[in-house]
Structures are given as C-alpha cells and as structure tokens.
Design goal:
With about 325 residues, this protein is an alpha+beta fold. Helix content is about 20%, strand content about 40%. The strands form three sheets. Strands 1, 4, 5, 7, 8, 9, 12, 13, 15 and 18 form a ten-stranded mixed beta sheet that branches. Strand 12 and strand 13 form a beta hairpin. It is globular.
Length: about 325
C-alpha cells in the first residue's frame, strides 16, 4: 500500500488556484500603473517646457533692473492712457486751478523711478505729465512761490530718472528740469513763460502726476531765473541789488559736477570767486549753493556761473547782471 500516491485534496487545490489568480491580477495592475506613470511623466515634462520661459522671467537672477521695470508701451496703451489723462477732472474749485503756494499728495514708497515726462496742449491750459514705474503715484510735495514763474515738485522717494529735462515750447509752459535733491530723491522744476495758476491730478495704472498751467494775466513779481545749456541760476535774479554776502544757488551739469561762481565788477575785474560741487551732473541736473563776498562797487556787476573750458581756458556759463545795494 506504500507505493500508491494519493491525489491532492479538493481544499488544497482550490487554495492554489486562488493564489494563482491573485498573482496574475497584481501583475496586470502593476503594468497598468507603470504605463500610467510613464504617461504622467511625459505630461509633466511637456508642462515644464512650456512654463520655463515664464518662470525664468520671474527669477531674481534674470530680473530686469528696477529702473527698467516699466514695459514698452503699445500704441493702444499709449492712446488709452492719453485718453484717461484728457478726461481727468479736478476735484473742486474753479476748474481746479489755484494759486496756492503749496500742495502735496501721493503714497509713501509707491514708486522709485521717473519713467517719462511729456507735454500736451489742452485748449485753455497746458499739461505736463510725470509718469512713474508703478501703478501708483509716490509721495510728492509742490512749491509754487507767488510771482516766481515756476513750480517745484519734490519726489523724495525717487531713486532713478530716465529724463533730465527739456523744452516744452508752450504758450505758458516753457520747460522742465529734473534735479537730484541733496536731501534725497529728486525734484522737478516746471517753468512758465509768465504768471500762471496750476492744478495737480493723480492718475493710476500707471502712476502719473499731472500738472496743468493756465495763464493768470498780469506780470511776474520777479524776473525768471537765468537758464543756460548747462547752468541755471535760481538766485540771484537779473537786476537784483546785492551787498555783503551773496547766496548763489541753482543747478548745473558741468563736467564732474564742478561749478564755478565769479563776481565781476563793472570794469571786468574779478571781485570774488568760489567753486562748488553740485549734487549730480551725469544722470540729471545737480543742485548747488554757495556764498560769495560782495565788495562795494559802482554801476552794474555780473555774476557768472559755469566752468572754465579745459581746452581754451575761457569761462563758459550764464551771466546774471546785478547792482550794488549797500
């Protein structure tokens, strides 16, 4: 009886078949998941290729400098912004124009660069627009001394500029100068051709400070500052009486910011001489201020502001006639 082999029992056979079925199912599921994983990897690879350019523009290592962060405008954008500027209306007053000596506004830290300054004529008034590198207007303050013929817009938070100044050639708006303020930031002087009233508007997206001039009639209380190619003299004014110690101030763009002030007597002799370094000269106008001693003289003397030519040795600058007031 020991040579007879027995057949497997039914319970053992069923268990073996069940194990075989489970293994087969797992193999098929693993294959399908592997295929799905390969498909998903390919999809992720395609997506990464498409997003790489966008992500690279956001990378700090490849980001454009702050002063170049304003994108080039399209014709449509320029037309739309100009339309919003033309439709901008003041908040109160007679057309919003005023002769107030001071005004202020804007938001702290809203912008760091002046992107552009432009000019336009609008019927009874003329307009200068200062555009910034952000959606909002930064903190600003305006000083418009009565009878002086200009407004000064101080922008203490501005760090860089792209335009240093230029001529408007308007009937009432003459031109502007962008000057580095020794106290920090920049200021923009907008000159008129005569008496004016002004208004200021703020526009967003992009941030723009709008300055309008309207003629006021009459005459200026003081002569306009003397303006030259590389030198502007705010003080003294033509015909001013001087004596003792004279403060000479303005802004210049002389080589290496070195500005020389001379006081020449009626006979052409040099009565006083002083050299001063302005706050800038390459990217914008640089502010300067100094004092010179005024000895007694008769007749008309001349304050000269400029620099000596390194080639010819001659003095190149602007002249302001003054009289003795002692």
């Amino acid at each position: 009886m020991s040579g007879i082999r027995r057949a497997p029992s039914l319970p053992l056979l069923g268990l073996a078949l069940f194990a075989l079925l489970v293994l087969s199912s797992c193999a098929r599921q693993g294959g399908s998941e592997e295929a799905a994983g390969r498909q998903n990897d390919r999809a992720q690879g395609d997506t990464a290729v498409q997003t790489t350019p966008e992500e690279s523009t956001r990378s700090p290592a490849k980001a454009a400098p702050r002063e170049r962060s304003v994108p080039e405008r399209t014709v449509e954008e320029g037309a739309r912004w100009q339309e919003t500027e033309e439709k901008a209306t003041p908040s109160a007053g007679e057309g919003g124009f005023t002769a107030a000596p001071e005004a202020s506004g804007g938001a702290e830290g809203a912008a760091r660069a002046i992107a552009e300054v432009r000019f336009g004529r609008h019927g009874a008034y003329e307009r200068a627009v200062i555009e910034f590198d952000s959606p909002r207007v930064p903190r600003w303050s305006l000083s418009s001394p009565a009878g002086e013929g200009y407004s000064r817009i101080s922008l203490p938070g501005i760090e860089t500029v792209r335009q240093a100044g230029g001529r408007f050639g308007g009937r009432i708006m003459d031109g502007y100068y962008v000057v580095r303020d020794p106290q920090g930031g920049f200021f923009v002087d907008v000159f008129a051709t005569g008496p004016f009233r002004y208004r200021v508007l703020e526009l967003r997206n992009p941030g723009r400070l709008v300055l309008d001039y309207a003629p006021a009639g009459g005459s200026l209380a003081r002569p306009l500052p003397v303006q030259g190619e590389r030198n502007v003299v705010m003080e003294p004014r033509p015909g001013q009486a001087v004596s003792g110690t004279l403060v000479v101030s303005g802004y210049s763009r002389n080589f290496e910011a070195l500005t020389t002030v001379l006081l020449r007597g009626p006979d052409g002799s040099v009565l006083s001489r002083k050299s001063v370094t302005a706050s800038a000269w390459s990217e914008a106008w640089g502010y300067f201020e100094t004092t010179v001693e005024v000895p007694p003289f008769r007749g008309e003397a001349t304050v000269l502001v400029g620099a000596e030519s390194p080639r010819e040795g001659t003095f190149q600058g602007v002249e302001v006639p003054v009289v003795y007031g002692g």
